[in-house]
Write a structure and sequence with these properties.
The protein is of the alpha+beta class. The protein is built from four helices and three strands, in the order βββαααα.
Length: 109
């Protein structure tokens, strides 16, 4: 397996690493390290086993849920999860814009 590393042009702490394995090239984007308490790390480790996710995937899932709970306001977990299923390609900026449009249409009614 060979690898090539380069910086992402628009993200100052991110870098891309390309791996070649069996004549296929895979690109992985790495970001900076986020420090969490030992207690949160242990909870991540347990949850990642229960939900059959990697530690990083579990942390990312919790970050998305937390972010969306702040942005979407009064939604419960099931509603946020459904929102993610329906809008899996949205960025935070698009979610906020979409929420703004739906809030303004509610005010007109």
């Amino acid at each position: 397996m060979s690898s090539i590393e380069r910086k992402c042009p628009h993200e100052h702490r991110a870098y891309l690493k390309q791996y070649t394995f069996h004549n296929k090239t895979y690109t992985v984007r790495f970001m900076g390290i986020v420090k969490v308490s030992d207690d949160i790390h242990e909870q991540l480790r347990i949850a990642s086993k229960v939900f059959d996710r990697s530690l990083n995937a579990q942390a990312e899932h919790w970050l998305k849920i937390g972010m969306l709970s702040e942005v979407l306001g009064n939604k419960n977990y099931s509603e946020i999860r459904d929102f993610l299923f329906q809008n899996d390609e949205l960025t935070l900026e698009k979610i906020i814009a979409k929420r703004g449009r739906s809030d303004s249409s509610k005010k007109r009614k």
